[in-house]
## 1
Amino acid sequence: RKEVEQDPGPFNVPEGATVAFNCTYSNSASQSFFWYRQDCRKEPKLLMSVYSSGNEDGRFTAQLNRASQYISLLIRDSKLSDSATYLCVVNTRDNYGQNFVFGPGTRLSVLP
Amino acid sequence: NAGVTQTPKFQVLKTGQSMTLQCAQDMNHNSMYWYRQDPGMGLRLIYYSASEGTTDKGEVPNGYNVSRLNKREFSLRLESAAPSQTSVYFCASSEQTDQPQHFGDGTRLSIL
């Protein structure tokens, strides 16, 4: 089982739609979690950190379920500019050091 | 404010050649990282430096060496380039290892 898995995608949605991405992680010792977005041939950019209590930033809502080892990202009222690949990132510290694991990403295309 | 700067942006090498990828950050971050990104593989951590004076292996360190020259700079060296090292290389930095990372623009490296 891969350490971090995401919905395979791609997701093609119309403007204004609500879309949800899921991410699961295998290491129960994981400590911090993030969502990044990456545009084609560009660097990843932080979208939001994910906190245990859940957090919201405008149209974006992130949730963490430690018991199920599951993270989600909800995008409301999708815009054309939301088209990108969304990366789930899990950070774990163990006896071997720090391990940052990026999921493979889920591609979103918002259609006019 | 430049953030994370990588040089060069593009490079073509022949098998067996060596080269060093440069990375510098101006955000006074303690931690720095090198990743590679291949199609269908997502981002994979090569090496990281939790703080000035320390370096540690990531998921895919073989064939690479790193130097944390000072707090600002973290270089990645390929001693004898192989075609399997053709990839896009990203440098990143963060305040501490459990904090969000900020990425450079990337270096597109092709090895013939």
## 2
Amino acid sequence: DAGVIQSPRHEVTEMGQEVTLRCKPISGHDYLFWYRQTMMRGLELLIYFNNNVPIDDSGMPEDRFSAKMPNASFSTLKIQPSEPRDSAVYFCASSSFFEKLFFGSGTQLSVL
Amino acid sequence: GESVGLHLPTLSVQEGDNSIINCAYSNSASDYFIWYKQESGKGPQFIIDIRSNMDKRQGQRVTVLLNKTVKHLSLQIAATQPGDSAVYFCAETNGGSQGNLIFGKGTKLSVKP
């Protein structure tokens, strides 16, 4: 099993640009999570899906952030427009029955 | 100005010694706890979990202890190796609600050869 696959690995963009992060969960997992990690705030849950349906998006910082899961094998997290304070590492994770999350390697986002 | 990063607690141990990493959790209703290990440049990796109906659980070289009375969780690593150097996070479910996995701030473990 290849694990959770995230792309791109690194993203550098300018303020105001649209950013799209991608995630392929582990096959057969029912849950998909998007986390953000910063030194100041640690790991924060942004949103999670169950069977492709968004269940809780209360962690999404503001309307500039949106996430979709069109099918069981793909999810995106979009930031439009991006701001410097969005700079962080964004992790996608998946799991069966919610427990034991398996994380991807993350996307290091830098907004200049 | 430059933002100040969160200061992580650091534990430094000698190779071969045992390590104990502590975590205080916040919600007395939490019923499931997990320890994760995060190496530099990688995502968190599951180590071991424990449910609230248990006090202790052992894995390979790792043991998790749960004290619900004082809301305390610990991770013990036996015969610590250089490859154990990482940041360790405890996580709790908030009242059992799915998705509300709350992560602690982490402890950095450094293993001296």
